[in-house]
Amino acid sequence: MIRLYDYDLSGNCYKVRLMLAILGLDYERKNVEFFPGKRHREPEFLAVNPLGQLPVLEDGDLRLTQSQAILTYLARAYDASGQWFPLDTPARTGQCLQWLGFADALTATASAARLADGMGFDFDGDAAREGAHKLFAVLDEHLWFHEREGHDWLVPGAAPTIADIACFPYVMLSEEGGIPREPFPAIRRWTDRVKRIPGFVVMPGIFPAILGSQ
Amino acid sequence: MTIERASGANGWVPVAASEDVIPRHVFQGKLLGQELAIWRADDGYVNIWENRCLHRGVRLSIGINTGTELICQYHGWRYANRNAGCTYIPAHPADAPPRTICNRTYPVREAAGLIWTHLDAVEPAFPALTEAPLVLRAMPLRAVPAAVEAALAAWSVEGLTAEGDLRFGDGSSQLQLYVQAVDAGQSVIRGVLTGALAGQGLVVLRRLNTALTALTRQLEAEALAAPAPAPIAPVYARVSEELAEMPGLEADLADGPGKIRVTLAAKKMVANGIVSLELKPLRGVLPTFQPGAHIDVALPSGLVRQYSLVNAPGETDRYVIGVKREAQSTGGSEAIHEHLREGDLLAISEPRNNFTLRRDAAQTIFIAGGIGVTPLLAMSAALAGDGQDFQLHYFAAGQEHLAFQDRLAALGDRLTPHLGLDPAATAAKLRDILAQPGPAKQVYVCGPGPMLDATLKIAAEAGWPDNSVHFEYFKNTQTLDDSQAFEIALARSAVTLQVPAGKSILQVLRENGIKMASSCGQGACGTCKVRVLEGTPDHQDVYLNASEKASNATIMTCVSRAKTDRLILDL
After folding, report:
1. Given an 8 Å threshold on Cβ–Cβ distance, is A211 in contact with B71?
2. What is the pLDDT of residues B450-474, one digit of tens each?
3. Shortest CA distance from A138: residue in chain B
4. Mutation site, A130, A143, A171, A182, interface B, largest B CB count within 10 A
5. Res B99 pLDDT > 80
6. C-beta of residue A167 within 8 angstroms of C-beta of residue A139
7. What are A4-45's pLDDT values in tens digits?
């Protein structure tokens, strides 16, 4: 049984829950109260991840930290189709990893602004917002031209990849950190498409795009 | 203020590209501080609304576009394509929302690959445009709109030089730019390209995007050096006075037919002896409606008749009704079948809904007899759109009597026709259909009087509670007795009036200057319902169900009278 050290309001934990749901995998959830309890700084959790970061995934003897690494593992281990982590061409593998790096940049900016505004973290909210705004402008431009070339997803190809799952949460939660998405219509269309992936699940602050989704 | 010189302040201004407003999506826009929710219905119509739900002010741009309606994420209020009226409030599943709950809409034009609106008090002239241009990627920038316009006036790109009014050309190609004044310190540059350069497609769009990005960086750097202007305070739509006050009788008072002028856009035979009429507004947008609603139609002969709307949700550009030619027509159906022609003008009332569809049932059973299918078609389409569990049982004399085949076909296996059954066989079939009452099941039945009487009796015998069986009679065929005289006291008006034999309560009220809505005049439609505070009504209508009649809580003032000497009414 897969075990996930998880926190409801974390976008990085949510992207793992989202991937698990899309792949139809059962898992055991272990809640670590990040805010306000700061349980991720306590010895019990530091024994699991000395860096004190969520999420952590355990699968048999394997223990993995870093949400982008966890997504990659889940796709390689449980997606027989090879859709979610593309190895079909070197270019697509590289592009996928490029956007996983972009997701880390979103964590450093959009997520940091949200933690500063919403959970009292001592981060420079304005600097984080400015950084996220620049990332969003790049993302919107990429997606706009991509749409015109017939591509719906971050990596060219017919189907979404873990790059979409990795970038989605902190884009979608940006307004909680005071970063509007109204100037970026191509981003808003892309997030609607992600919400329509079969198996999509929501988290607090992220709403469904169709009737009857959970 | 400098902002008023920006092109966004006067005249039509593009606020989105056509390609932005894709199906089942809600585009978030902004113009002069006003947030906009822009969405395209499945019929292609583009709606531009104020971006806040009338209920709790939540942004509609995070809502769900069903293709016919926009649903707010917060409490599920639904608003219809085109007229923006509220069609359903989940917290009040048994009530029709008043027509006054209607979102603020903005003027819409879709032309030259762009979606346009304006905030002017008087509709400005629409600019002449070249159709089918190449539409640039919109460039958002955090700079004062007037400053952006000033910078663009001296700009040149791709060898195209400024010709004034943000037009750039070289004789063979033309670039038209627009500055959308998003807010005091926010702009969007939009543009369309025509001519030779446009033939390069995506390649030239990328180059223009690069050039505009460079300009944007420069303007944003300059804007950062100056103090940021205060954002424009948004002006929210005023809630109508009817909505702000306690809902009084006046709020939903229809003035009867004559209120809305429509033209008969199409008249088609849709079954043996049944025509459909498509009514389109002479100008503006038709008022909102919910499934089960009916309108009064004033015929050129002076007759007034009630017909249910067949419309599916979002089908808001016209009203569709079905009219059966009655063998013993008293003039209404004959006049429609024989004399009405496409292009004729008619006067109709606003829609009223006294046959409300609940959308919280686990299962819904619709039972239609003949032309009684019309409101049930509207209801079926609403539930089908939501993917809810329902069955439509349609009793008719034969295949050729099944009306609105195209709408029926869309229901697939959720439609069960029952053809050519005599009353005994009909009753047996109804017993089958109604064999299993359930706590979350609802029944809606509409058809001829004898069939309704039979259905209500069978439902009661099968153990269906009254409040799960909803019905609508076409007309009241009971013999009315108006021989009794009595007194009515109006609690709120502090007036006492005498109702003599031969006159209805409604007539007496109106003679004394009390405004009352009414429609059918025979106790079938429920429009003239009034609360009874004291006294025992003599119910002669066919609108209330048995338990509603027994409770004596309400009365149909057009036909019902009093068993006691005096009634106290909540008027």
Report:
1. yes
2. 999 999 999 999 999 999 999 988 8
3. B213
4. A182
5. no
6. yes
7. 999 999 999 999 999 999 999 999 999 998 888 888 889 999
Asked if the Cβ–Cβ distance from A188 to B30 is below 8 Å, we say no
Clarify whether residues A67 and A30 are in a common domain.
Answer: yes
CA B141 to mean position of chain CA atoms: 37
Is B241 part of any domain? no
Q: Is B310 helix (H, G, I), strand (E, B) or coil?
A: coil
The reply to whether A44 and A10 lie within a common domain is yes
Cβ burial B225-242 (10 Å sphere, 16+ → b, else e)? eeeeeeebeeeeeeeeeb
Do A71 and A136 fall into the same domain? no
Q: Is residue B547 part of a domain?
A: yes
Using a pLDDT cut of 70, give the percent of chain B over it: 94
- The predicted complex's ipTM stands at 0.93
φ/ψ bin of B484: left (φ > 0), alpha (ψ from -120 to 50), beta (otherwise) = beta
Domain-located, residue B500 = yes
Contacts with A137 from chain B: Cβ below 8 Å: 140
| Res. B330 pLDDT band, cuts 50 70 90 | confident
**CATH number of the domain that A7 lies in?**
3.40.30.10
- Flag whether pLDDT at B245 surpasses 50: no
A34-82 tens-digit pLDDT:
888 888 889 999 999 999 999 999 999 999 999 999 999 999 999 999 9
Residues in B closer than 8 angstroms to A183, CB to CB, are 140, 182, 186, 188
Domain count, chain B: 4
Identify which of A137, A185, A211 has the shortest CB distance to residue B27: A185
Task: Verify that B530 and B397 share a domain, yes or no.
Answer: no
A78, A111, A146 — which closes off a domain? A78
> CB–CB of B209 and A188 under 8 A?
no
Whether A67 and A55 have beta carbons less than 8 Å apart is answered as yes
B275 vs A120, higher pLDDT: B275
Q: Are residues B115 and B203 in the same domain?
A: yes
If asked whether residues B12 and B140 sit together in one domain, one would say yes
Which CATH number fits the domain that encloses residue B196? 2.102.10.10
Query: Does residue A212 lie in a domain region?
Result: no
Residue with tokens 């027994």: B550
Verify that B323 and B410 share a domain, yes or no: no
Residues in contact with B192: Cβ distance below 8 Å, sequence separation at least 6, in sequence order: B112, B113, B114, B129, B130, B133, B134, B135, B136, B175, B176
Which residue reads 């304005």 in tokens? A126
Cβ–Cβ gap A145/B205 under 8 Å: yes
Interface test with A, best of B38, B59, B64 (most A CBs within 10 A): B64
Judge whether residue B253 has pLDDT over 80.
no
**For position B493, which CATH number holds?**
3.10.20.30
Domain containing A7 equals: 2-78
- When CB atoms are compared, the residue of B22, B206, B387 closest to A145 is B206
> Is residue A106 located within the same domain as residue A184?
yes
Nearest residue of A to residue B61, measured between CA atoms: A182
pLDDT at A196 over 70: yes
Q: Residue B257: its pLDDT value, please? A: 54
What does each C-alpha distance from A110 to A34, A69, A169, B28 come to in angstroms?
18, 20, 10, 20
Residue B354 placed within a domain: no
Please give the residue range of the domain that contains residue B98: 2-225
**Assigned token pair, B289:** 């409606």
pLDDT attached to residue B238: 64
Which residue, B163, B166, B159, is CA-closest to B208? B159
A98 and A188 assigned to the same domain: yes
Q: Which residues of B touch A192 (CB under 8 A)?
A: 24-25
Is a pLDDT exceeding 80 seen at residue B250? no
CB contacts < 8 Å between A and B, how many?
52
Angle at the Cα of B150 from the Cα atoms of B146 and B154, rounded to 5 degrees = 165
> Do residues A66 and A120 both lie within one domain?
no
List Cα–Cα distances, B44 to B25, B41, B80, B314, in angstroms.
12, 5, 14, 11
Same domain, A105 and A136: yes
